[in-house]
Amino acid sequence: MAARRNGLDELDRKVLRLIRERPRTGLLEIARLLGVARGTVQARLDRMIADGVITDFGPNLSPHALGYPVQAFTTLEVEQASRADISSALTAIPEVLEAHIVTGPGDVWCRIAGRDHEHIQQVIDQTLAIPGVRRSSTVITLSTVVPHRVQPLADDR
After folding, report:
1. Which residues contact 127 (CB under 8 A, 6 or more apart)?
2. Residue 19: its pLDDT value, please?
3. Gap between the Cα atoms of 6 and 55, Å rounded
4. CA of 100: how far to CAs of 58, 73, 83, 144, in Å?
5. Residue ranges covered by each domain of the chain
6. What does the alpha-carbon distance between residue 7 and residue 82 come to, in Å, rounded to a whole number?
7. CATH of domain 6-50
8. Containing H/E element for 135?
9. Positions of E strands within the chain
């Protein structure tokens, strides 16, 4: 197989775009829309899964629609030696949507969701109760300007 920029060629990008735009479309229909064999689409998907390009096929859920309309970003200052235990504890809090170890100010940045501001405070209190977490700083989101996305990276040339 010829080397490809970023591991994706134009057909891969078209397959990914179709799956994102029409997630309930079957492989046969995707193949028909792209003018290729069904086996070609399956092989491309299998390779992108094996390469870690495609990480899941689950539906994207809306915290707002699930009753968690308030989102916030919390920066945690932590004891460095406790990062593994802190990561496990954060995973156990359902309202923690994401957590990232970062450079610069703070040590761990978390995106959290809550039913209201009081609930956000309760989630922050939960994170502060984790052994090794020293302090937090939180900002509440007002609106989402650019939602989480990755497709533009695949489309970038």
Report:
1. 74, 76, 90, 93, 96, 110, 133, 136
2. 93
3. 16
4. 22, 11, 11, 19
5. 6-50, 70-140
6. 36
7. 1.10.10.10
8. strand 133-140
9. 70-78, 96-101, 108-114, 133-140
Give the pLDDT of the chain (157 residues) as one tens digit per residue. 344 445 799 999 999 999 989 999 999 999 999 999 999 999 999 999 999 999 988 888 999 999 999 999 999 999 989 999 999 999 999 999 999 999 988 999 999 999 999 999 999 999 999 999 999 999 999 999 999 888 888 887 5
Residue in this structure with the two tokens 């609930």, named with its chain if needed: 119
**Residue 21 buriedness (CB in 10 A; 0-12 / 13-18 / 19+):** exposed
Topology at the third CATH level for domain 70-140: Alpha-Beta Plaits (3.30.70)
At residue 151, the 3 state secondary structure works out as: helix
Is 111 within 8 Å of 73 (Cβ atoms)? yes
Task: Report pLDDT for 2.
Answer: 41
State both tokens at 111: 């995106």
